[in-house]
Amino acid sequence: MNRFLIVVEKANGNYSAYSPDLPGCVATGESREKVERNMHEAVQMHVQGLREDNLPIPESQSFAEYIAV
Asked: Which residues contact 49 (CB under 8 A, 6 or more apart)?
C-alpha cells in the first residue's frame, strides 16, 4: 500500500486538492468531503496508470506541519 499527502484548498465556491508527490494528480469538489473522495479516486487512477505503463511509483516525500505565530 502507498500513502500520499494531499493538500486541500478552499477556492471560490468549491474545493481543490493535489498531491505534491504525484505531479498532475488533482481533483475538485463542492465540499471538503467530496474533494477528498475525488482525490482518493484520482490517486488510485494515477498509480494504476503508472503501473500499467511500467513506471515507478514515487515514494512519498512530502509531509505537513502547522506552525503557530
From this structure: none
Per residue in 28-44, pLDDT (tens digit) is 999 999 999 999 999 99
Domains, the chain: 7-52 (3.30.160.250)
pTM (predicted TM-score): 0.89
- 3-class DSSP assignment, residue 42: helix
- Cα within 13 Å of Cα(45), Cβ side: 10
Single out the residue of 41, 39, 12 nearest to residue 28, CA to CA: 39
Query: CA nearest 57: which of 67, 69, 45, 47?
Result: 47
Joined together, the cell numbers standing for residue 21 give 508527490
